[in-house]
């Protein structure tokens, strides 16, 4: 998530951020923001597959700095995609952008593309250091906010949505968290930082109601988008309210659209009255014949605001206190995940790709720095992914034929340009091999497909990849009873054995 332009606005107003000496506290950390920040802001290699040793050392230094200040970190990671699909257009746009950045890096120019194993190394180091962590079923923002609110401790992240969440202990932007510059005596070391609270922002606008901040985020636009009619509403607000210097501001012209919206919202004592004014403005613009449309906009705005409505009690707090089962998420599909896989997912040992394949039957394959004229490097593992999909989705109604068999010969593919008039020899070789593998398992009563998004030349391409169902059912529920090996090793071994069986 993220609110367009909000970070720039807040950081350009020093009164919104307060200097703090952070120590002796719990700290809820947005894991994804942290590993992106650490990797990209310390000049680590992006062009040659990643510098994982340097990254592991850097993360270890960060954790040691926290320990020196008696700060107890709790790390939350994003899991799979939002099942509501509200954010999918944004994810797709970002993936297309990363394809272009990866190509730019391959030619020695600028860009930011995270090497593919950074997240894995991040989790490994946290486990080795005994740092409490959890991978959430979907996006972690809301769970991070709920946990920080319950524990009354700050959040460390780079996400501008945390300028909207009402957190009593505030939000510490990673940009201002000076963990490499510890101060204080040995027993009283602290991290110089800056802390934001919604109180500071609302005070600037005459003590406006904090419950109005989510409406500002929705109107401005976040990763979930905004209702189509919102742009019309913003034009009306700009022309009718902001031009008159409305709100509890100081009468000067707003420096930005965000400031203008906040200035306008500050004139309302409650969310209900602000939404009522939205209806009035839209009614005057559209006429009496479109009452349903303007009422619908108010309802859409209200629904979108609920993304920022955090609970007093976090469902993840029991997980960190020990003895709690892994969270199953809000969807019935994820609730059907076998307990051992649910536990592995919560521990960060099962990647989001597996969750997306299970819940959404859709997978995003993130681009890497490579020769964009050749086939995507993900093509080399298509048959492996098909086997993994088959194991995960074997209960989805598909039935294997008597001779489910995968031929791997010819999967290497050739060189050449991809995506021109049929995909080029490299890409085409991969696709034909995958089709041949799927063809050997015809006889399904209802084939199961996973929608994959991968690079083809410099474009994002959607492919329907058939899940290869194993001939002999793999009983994943039983893996949790295998005491000889850690759960994740049992799962990995199961996947490898099943794949090899299909190759015979």
UniProtKB/TrEMBL annotation:
Domain (Asteroid) ranges: 135-216
**Pfam families per record:** XPG_I_2
What is the top-level taxon of the source organism? Eukaryota
Family, similarity comment: Belongs to the asteroid family.
The name under which this protein is listed is Protein asteroid
The lineage is: Eukaryota, Metazoa, Chordata, Craniata, Vertebrata
């Amino acid at each position: 998530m993220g609110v367009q332009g909000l970070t720039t606005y807040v950081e350009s107003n020093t009164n919104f951020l307060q200097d703090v000496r952070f120590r002796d506290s719990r700290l809820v950390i947005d894991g994804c923001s942290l590993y992106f920040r650490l990797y990209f802001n310390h000049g680590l290699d992006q062009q040659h597959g990643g510098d994982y040793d340097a990254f592991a050392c850097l993360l270890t230094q960060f954790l040691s700095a926290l320990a020196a200040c008696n700060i107890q970190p709790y790390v939350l990671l994003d899991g799979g995609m939002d099942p509501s699909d509200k954010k999918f257009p944004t994810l797709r746009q970002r993936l297309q952008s990363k394809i272009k950045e990866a190509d730019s890096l391959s030619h020695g120019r600028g860009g930011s593309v995270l090497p593919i194993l950074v997240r894995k190394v991040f989790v490994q180091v946290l486990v080795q250091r005994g740092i409490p962590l959890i991978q959430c079923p979907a996006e972690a923002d809301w769970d991070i906010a709920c946990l920080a609110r319950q524990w009354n401790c700050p959040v460390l992240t780079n996400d501008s949505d945390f300028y909207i969440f009402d957190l009593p202990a505030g939000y510490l932007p990673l940009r201002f968290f000076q963990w490499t510059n510890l101060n204080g005596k040995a027993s009283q070391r602290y991290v110089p930082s800056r802390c934001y609270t919604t109180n500071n922002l609302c005070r600037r606008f005459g003590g406006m109601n904090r419950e109005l901040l989510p409406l500002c985020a929705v109107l401005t636009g976040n990763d979930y988008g905004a209702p189509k009619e919102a742009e019309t509403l913003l034009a009306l607000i700009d022309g009718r309210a902001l031009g008159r210097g409305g709100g509890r501001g100081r009468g000067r012209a707003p420096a930005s659209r965000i400031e203008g919206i906040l200035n306008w919202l500050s004139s309302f004592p409650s969310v209900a009255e602000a939404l009522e004014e939205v209806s009035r403005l839209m009614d005057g613009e559209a006429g009496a014949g479109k009452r349903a449309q303007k009422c619908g906009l108010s309802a859409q705005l209200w629904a979108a605001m609920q993304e920022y409505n955090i609970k007093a009690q976090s469902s993840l707090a029991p997980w960190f206190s020990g003895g709690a089962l892994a969270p199953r998420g809000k969807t019935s599909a994820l609730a059907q995940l076998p307990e051992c896989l649910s536990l592995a997912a919560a521990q960060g040992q099962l990647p989001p790709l597996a969750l997306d394949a299970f819940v959404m039957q859709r997978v995003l394959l993130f681009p890497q720095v490579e020769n964009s004229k050749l086939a995507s490097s993900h093509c080399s593992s298509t048959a492996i992914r098909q086997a993994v999909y088959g194991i995960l989705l074997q209960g989805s109604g598909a039935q294997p034929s008597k001779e489910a068999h995968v031929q791997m010969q010819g999967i290497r593919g050739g060189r050449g340009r991809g995506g021109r008039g049929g995909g080029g020899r490299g890409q085409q070789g991969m696709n034909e091999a995958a089709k041949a593998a799927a063809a050997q398992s015809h006889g399904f009563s209802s084939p199961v497909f996973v929608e994959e998004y991968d690079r083809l030349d410099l474009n994002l391409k959607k492919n329907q990849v058939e899940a290869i169902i194993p001939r002999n059912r793999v009983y994943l529920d039983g893996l949790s009873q295998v005491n000889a090996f850690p759960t994740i090793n049992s799962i990995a071994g199961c996947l490898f054995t099943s794949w090899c069986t299909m190759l015979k």
